[in-house]
Amino acid sequence: MTDAQQLFDYARKQFNDIADDVERHFEQVAGQLREWMPADASFVRQQPPPKRLPPPTTLQIAQRWMLRHRALTAAAVAFLLTGSVGAFVFVKSRDQKRKRRARRSTSGARTDVVVIVGAVANPLTSALYLDLERRGFVVYVVANTHEDEHYVRSQSRIDLLPLNLDLVDPFAAQDQLARFRGLLEREHFAFDGAEPHRLNFTGLVLIPDTQATPARVDEISSEEWSDALNAKVLNTIATTQLFLPTVTEHKAKVLLLTPSVTPALKLPMHAVENTVYGALEGFTSSLAAELKQDGVAVSHFKLGNIDIPSVTAKQRREGASKPMLKATPLRKLHDSVFDALVTKRPRRTLHVGRGSLAYDIIGSWMPPMVIGWMMGAAKRPTVVVEEVHEEEMQGSQGSLTWEKIDQEA
C-alpha cells in the first residue's frame, strides 16, 4: 500500500466520522425540539379546508339541460308558441260565437232591466239600446222631452220603453223615479197562472254627447260654454245622482261610454270636447272610488273608431272617401257592454274601437310637441264654417275616424 493510498483512506475515514457526528447532533437537537414544543402549537398555520361550491339552482340546472339538449329545447319552444297562438285564436273565435243572452225567469219572462241615458236619436245610442233589447233585457231609455219619448216608442219594441225624467223639476224627477223603483219592487206575472218574478236592475249605461264643433277658445262665447257644460256634463251628473240609491240597492253596474281619440291627444280647436271629457272622466273616477265601498262596479268605455252601419251608409251616399284603416265592427262594442253588465267584476277601464288604446298611450306618454308635430299642429288650421243640419250632427256623433281628426288638426 502506498503512502498516497493510506492518506486517501485516512481522509475518507475522517470525513465519515465528521458526517456521523453532525447527523447525531441534528438528531439530538430535533429530539429536544420535539420534546419542548407541544403537538398542537398555535403558531403552526393550519391549511383551510377546501371550499365547496353551492348546489346549482333550478334555473342553472334547466340552462345546463337546455344546452345539452338544444334540438329538443327548440322543438318544445316551437310547440309552445304554436299552441299558445292556436289556443288564443280558439278562445277568441269561441268568444265571438258565444250567444250572449240575458237571464229569464222560470216562466220565460225577462227579468234584467237596463237604463240607457244619452241622446235618444244618436246612432250609437239607438244601436246600443236596440241590441240590448234583442239580447233579452228590459231596456228603459231616459226621455227628457216628448220628442224623445215618441222616438223610442216609434221603434215598436215591446221591452224598449221610455223613462220620463224631468231634470228641470227635481220633485217631479223624484216622483218619476219612485214609480220606477216601485216597478222593480213589486212582483210580476208573465201570464195567468205563471210563477211571480221580480225585475232586477242590472245596469245604468251613460252615453253623453261629448263632441262639439271645432273652434278656437277665443271664438267660443260664454253662452256656448254654459250650454255645453249644462247639457253634456251637468245633465249626466244629475241623472246619475237620481239613480244612485237604486243602483246601490240593486248592486247595478254603471257604464260610461265616451269617444276618447280626440280628448286623448288634446288637439287644438277642441277645447269644449276636451273639457267635457276631462270633467266626465274625473267624475267617473270619484264615483268609482265611492261606489266601490258599496260593492258597485263602475266601468269607463273609451271608444275609438267604430263602424256604425247607419253612419257608414250615409257617408257612402254622400260620396265620402273610404277610410284607409278598417273600423272596429259595432258588434265588438255590443259584446263588451253585455259582458260588463253580466260580469261580477268588470274592468275599470275598457278600450273598444280602433285607435282607442294606441292614442291613449300616445297622449299619456309622448310630449305635447311630438303630438303636435305628428298631427300637423305647426300649421295654423283654417276653419271652414259650413251649415250643419241637426240630423247630420246626430249622425256624426257615433263614430270617430282618424282621417277626420287629421283634417281638423
UniProtKB/TrEMBL annotation:
Record carries keyword Transmembrane helix: yes
Keywords: Membrane, Transmembrane, Transmembrane helix
Key word 4Fe-4S present: no
Domain of life: Eukaryota
Entry's transmembrane regions: 71-91, 112-130
Pfam family, one: DUF1776
Protein name: DUF1776-domain-containing protein
